[in-house]
From TrEMBL:
GO cellular component: cytoplasm
MF term (GO), any: 4 iron, 4 sulfur cluster binding
Manner of cofactor binding, per the entry note: Binds 2 [4Fe-4S] clusters per monomer.
Protein name: Epoxyqueuosine reductase
SUPFAM superfamilies per record: alpha-helical ferredoxin
Binding residues for [4Fe-4S] cluster 2: 196, 212, 239, 242
């Protein structure tokens, strides 16, 4: 085993010890295959009001522009699947990824500890960590590194554990052994496409973000368009429909990370309490939650839209 093989094995073993579900590695290079796809997606205005997606086009496609001298992109996945569906058959629903604490902070902290331990063992190296932040095409790198394939709902899916996991990256200057993309196992299934109430899945692996319920309840800062009326299926923050119907998610197992376990206050909220929520209650309940991204006014707008 040569030095790059040893180092690669060390990193993958370390990732497993720190609770990551999968770890795959790709060469840090220009994503040639993704360039025309991203350009066409933006040209079709599938990003809606997410104007930030138009920024840093080159950096989104080339990690060497984000981390000078980078040689490897380490892609990682972290399970967040809950023990129970808190909002099944409820009149207000929150996406499963938001049951617990904000994944940006939780996973970044885990990565910092993991890298600190790595550097104690192998010495200093140049790196940056990313958790759904900065212009990084996470799913493209996860696919390239063999973590999973891109499903028809554009999520990364694995045969072993479905798709309820977060993605993260370490872009670094280490010379490592590179993995290869896995095969696609969606076959002729179109459950996600047929289940989407707003027809946001335009075609296989192509999403019109401006039609997505997650976009409407989180990213959109203006009033929710009338085109979403009677199609929200009670989602007030995010949406799990295309994942809930995916056959591969029958293999999802509950997360072991306590910080992703459901916020206790969420489990007991009644319809009336949601309706009568105040800024003070919102700040208290969602202080560490991804839901705080909508701010109180945004969540109130979503709730009002559902009840109209």
């Amino acid at each position: 085993m040569n030095s790059s093989e040893k180092l690669t094995k060390l990193i993958k073993d370390k990732a497993k010890n720190f609770g990551f579900q999968s770890c795959g590695i790709s060469k840090s290079e220009f994503l040639e295959e993704e360039a025309p796809k991203l350009e066409a997606w933006l040209k079709n205005n599938f990003h809606g009001e997410m104007k930030y997606m138009e920024n840093y086009f080159d950096k989104r496609l080339d990690p060497r522009l984000l981390v000078e001298g980078s040689r490897s992109v380490i892609s990682l996945s972290y399970n967040y699947f809950p023990k129970q569906d808190l909002f099944k058959d409820k009149l207000q629903k929150i996406s499963k990824y938001a049951y617990g604490e904000d994944y940006h902070e939780v996973i970044k902290e885990i990565l910092r500890e993991m890298i600190s331990e790595l550097q104690d063992e192998i010495g200093e190296f140049g790196f940056r960590v990313f958790v759904d932040s900065a212009p990084v095409l996470e799913r493209a790198w996860a696919k390239k590194s063999g973590i999973g394939w891109v499903g028809k709902n554009a999520n990364i899916i694995t045969k072993q554990s479905g798709s309820f996991f977060f993605l993260a990256e370490i872009i670094c200057d280490l010379d490592l052994e590179y993995d290869h993309a896995t095969t696609d196992h969606c076959g002729t299934c179109r459950k996600c496409i047929d289940a989407c109430p707003t027809d946001a899945i335009v075609s296989d692996k192509l999403i019109d973000g401006s039609k997505c319920i997650s976009y409407a309840t989180i990213e959109l800062k203006e009033e929710i368009p009338d085109s979403f009326k009677n199609k929200m299926e009670n989602w007030m923050f995010g949406c799990d429909i295309c994942q809930d119907v995916c056959p591969w998610n029958r293999f999802s197992a509950p997360t072991l990370e306590e910080k992703f376990h459901p916020n206790e206050a969420l489990q007991n909220f009644t319809k009336t309490e949601w309706k009568e929520m105040t800024q003070e209650i919102f700040s208290s309940v969602f202080r560490k939650s991804p839901v705080k991204r909508t701010k109180f006014a945004g969540l109130k707008r979503n709730l009002d839209f559902l009840s109209d």
